[in-house]
C-alpha cells in the first residue's frame, strides 16, 4: 500500500562522547533529496575484450540538500527545533560536526555525520521565505 510523505523528519544531534545521540527534529522541512547514489562504474576493459566492461565501484557520496520554510523567533521544544534558520546558521558558523537522522513515515531512514551550511533562497512578492540546508556526508549513510 502506498503512503504519504507526511511526517518525514530530519533530525539533528550533537556527536556524543559516548552512548546514543539525542536527536531533535527540525521544523519547516518540505523537500528531501534523493538518498544513496548509485555506485561509480570502474572500467575493467582489457585488450582481449570486444566491448567495454565495468564493475561497480565505490558509492558516490555527495552533499545532501534539504529545503525548509524559514522560521525565526519560535520557541524550541524538548523534541523539536522550531527556530530552524538561526540554530542551523549557528552550527554552520561554529563549523560543528553533527549527527543527522532522516526518518520516513514507514520507519525506514538513514543516519550519518556531517557539517552543515544554510543559504536563503531567492524570493519574490507574496512568497514564503525559504532556505536550503546543505549537509555533507562525512560518513556513509547507515540504515535505521
Description:
With 144 residues, the protein is mainly beta. It is built from one helix and twelve strands. The longest helix has 11 residues, at 84-94.
Which keywords apply here?
144 residues; elongated; 12 strands; 4-stranded antiparallel β-sheet; 39% strand; single chain; mainly beta; 1 helix; 6-stranded mixed β-sheet
- Which series of helices and strands comes N to C? EEEEEEEHEEEEE
Strand order of the largest sheet: 7-2-1-8-9-12
Count the DSSP helices: 1
Uncertain stretches of 5 or more adjacent residues: none
Summing up helix and strand content along with how strands pair, one would put the structural category as mainly beta
- What is the 3D shape? elongated
Q: In whole angstroms, how far apart are the ends? A: 21 Å
Q: What is the radius of gyration computed over CA atoms, rounded to a whole number of angstroms? A: 19 Å
Q: How many beta-strand runs? A: 12
β-sheet strand percentage:
35-45%
Overall mean pLDDT: 91
Largest sheet: 6 strands, mixed
The amount of helix comes to under 10%
